[in-house]
Amino acid sequence: MIKYLLYSSIVLLLIACGTAKRGEPAYAPLATTEPAVVQGKVVFDTFCHKCHPGGEAGLGPAINNKPLPGFLIRFQVRNGLGVMPAFSDKTISDSDLDVLVAYLKTLRKAKEDKPAQAP
Amino acid sequence: MVRPLQLLIYFLLFLLLSGCYRTRSSKGGGDLSRLMENRLVNPADVELPAGYKAEVVATGLTFPTDVAFDAQGQVYAIEAGYSYGEEFLEPKLLRIGPDGSKTTIATGAINGPWTGINFHDNAFYVAEGGQKEGGKILKITSDGTITTLLQNLPTFGDHHTNSPAIGPDGNLYFSTGTATNSGVVGPDNYDMGWLKRKPDFHDIPCQDITLTGQNFTSKAAETGEVKTTGPYLPYGTPATAQQVIQGALPCSGAVFRVSLEGSNLELVAWGLRNPYGLTFAPDGQLYVTENGYDDRGSRPVWGTGDYLWRIQTGQWYGWPDFAGGLAFNGDRFKVPGETAPQPLLASHPATPPRPVASLGVHSSSNGLDFSTAAAFGHVGEAFIAQFGDMAPNVGKVLAPVGFKVVRVNVENGAVTDFAKNKGKEHAPASALATGGLERPVAVKFSPDGTALYIVDFGIMQNTGDKTIPLKGTGVIWKITRTAL
């Protein structure tokens, strides 16, 4: 129990201090070799970007710096939470939700230094 | 295997991190902007992808809104002559020297804002917003002579006459914004300033529409009298069920084309709230940015983005009953804790299409242009200037939205940040106390396509009951690629 509380406290501290910026232009471009990630970005930009621009805070909170596991991302998308609406499988299909989760997990890690010159 | 305690902690974290929206205060760029008379300007504070650099072209501009290039590639800029906050000045066309010097070429009447300019065949074409006299399309020759090509456009309200663009057919395309946020005149329009000047002004549909009969009550700002107002009607005039509102041209929230002499006005598209930026892609397709609804006024709408549209001739795009192609029905677009907006029209002229791209809620996605040069990169993508939120006046946001330039893949709607400020958090430069971007309002590529000019309107603060724009804080930036 103490271990979990400690982990939770550390996670919360990291979240409070961590920037939500990911990918371009602050960091190297998101790796786009995986088709699921490319498709996931399109799903994200269609349904999520307007409230969480690039995964940062906007109308809604930042999601780039939240260590939520995939099953909770799916739960929140399907059920909504607070003022966030639920997205049914008619709006975001199960396969689109899979690639959305893949994209969000990749985006979360997109903090590699960008090269000094254009790629 | 996820253990029950771990699961419980995940759920608690999940609930905690999701936060309680209603208890959090607005922290938008409008809220956080600082009124700095001597604005800092430093290209090193602008974050760009690897291989690009920013330079300053000119500073000290008052409410600049666009740039243009003449046949020799000389840079010109317009100063709007009006800003939200009821700041009325003379609009100007300026020639910008290589050293950032400014020479006045033409001075307009106090009827701004001048929202856009384009150079074509040895003349400038300017959209004049029309806060005092109604919108106009102007032609300005290099000696500064101003000729009015078109006037009396119905844009005395929240949004203006916008963005002249010359089409591949040789016609001039422009747009008109709507008078109101979502179809109903109310105290928010008094706060904007225009309802005092034009108490009978309201939105005008482009063709006959039939109303559901919804009415909205509000207290008149000056007298406290309760007013009942219907959509597309003057403040204090109620609607009835099945009432027909006659369509007319010119109308509100629409895209038009006219000849370069200002004749043969034709409707291109309508049902757009504030179609601000108009640009033709290299393939000749017209694209338009639309500023989405606000959480304000008698019929507030929550959670709608700004949109990039591919314009089809004759199409209706959904205002005031759709956002981004989605209908107002059920609880959709409901302001938290309030009732959801319901349709105003008994039947809709068409089913709107879906947008090319959805952009940040309240991002104020404005001027756009397409990259055409491999030397700059991202050929075929649309670059869009995001002026940034005017929170809390337009509604609450949890962090600054906009205040940057994004690029959009128009084939799949993918949106990627291109130019924004350095720092742990994203915000306008004045809020960060740095010398980066404040409020990008337009982007335009140089004639050879190798440089992207960003027009930065300058500092504007929003306090809930006031909008405070700061004169002399506008900047023009230039972005080029340093390596291939």
UniProtKB/TrEMBL annotation, chain A:
Q: Report the superkingdom from the record.
A: Bacteria
Name assigned to this protein:
Cytochrome c
Q: Which GO terms describe its molecular function?
A: electron transfer activity; heme binding; metal ion binding
Key words, A-Z: Heme, Iron, Metal-binding, Signal
Xref: Pfam families: Cytochrome_CBB3 (PF13442)
User: What is the annotated signal peptide range for this record?
Assistant: 1-22
- All copies of the Cytochrome c domain together span 35-108
InterPro entries on file: Cyt_c-like_dom, Cyt_c-like_dom_sf
TrEMBL record, chain B:
Which residues, by range, are in coiled-coil regions?
A: none
Q: What is this protein called?
A: Glucose dehydrogenase
Entry's InterPro entries? 6-blade_b-propeller_TolB-like, Glc/Sorbosone_DH, Quinoprot_gluc/sorb_DH_b-prop
Q: Which Gene3D superfamilies match?
A: TolB, C-terminal domain
Which is one Pfam family of this protein? GSDH
Question: Where does the Glucose/Sorbosone dehydrogenase domain start and stop, copy by copy?
Answer: 262-336
Q: Spell out the PROSITE patterns in the cross-references.
A: PROKAR_LIPOPROTEIN
